[in-house]
Design a protein that fits this description.
With 171 residues, the chain is mainly β. The chain contains no helices and 12 strands.
């Protein structure tokens, strides 16, 4: 039996429609394709990072629609795979979404998805071949399934406490 260690860590700060994210990828130096050091691992130099920012806002007079543009930057330890990506997602009633993205190295992608139930999300994306490749077979199709474990947390407004300021003062 053999094993290798792989790990990522990320955090996202949200406030209203703003989302700021940071992730460390490839936390461990473990090579699953090299039999000599397959079972060995150590911490990496933590230079593989992802930064992201987005803002989701309602499209006022269209009522049920929201738009979320986002920007993402990937930083690699060798600097050769550093890349930025920009995208925009259009939501309908927070149940259906569609959008497109552009990646500095990979080109254009289109995607769509839906919430099947409160706990299951399904989406599909298609990435066109990079403009510079000249190959037509470098496109990709991806299917994503998300499952929520546990109950969805909701923000409940604080209850107002009634106070009676009309009480008489007796001397």
């Amino acid at each position: 039996n053999n094993f290798y260690v792989d790990g990522n860590f990320g955090v996202v700060y949200t406030h209203s429609g703003l989302r700021l994210g940071f992730a460390l990828t490839d936390i461990f130096e473990s090579n699953s394709f090299n039999e000599d050091n397959f079972n060995e691992f150590e911490l990496s130099n933590l230079k593989n990072r992802i930064y992201s920012a987005s803002y989701k806002f309602d499209l006022g007079h269209f009522g049920n629609f929201a738009l979320e543009p986002y920007f993402l930057y990937r930083q690699s330890k060798d600097g050769l795979q550093d890349a930025w990506e920009a995208a925009s997602v259009l939501y309908y009633k927070d149940k259906f979404w569609t959008g497109g993205s552009y990646n500095q190295h990979n080109g254009v992608a289109l995607f769509l998805g839906m919430n099947l139930k409160e706990t299951i999300k399904f989406s599909y994306s298609y990435e066109f071949p990079p403009f510079s490749s000249g190959f037509t077979s470098n496109s990709s199709h991806e299917l994503h399934v998300g499952i929520r474990l546990g109950k969805k947390k909701t923000n409940t407004p604080l209850k107002k406490v009634k106070t009676n300021y009309n009480s008489a003062i007796h001397t």
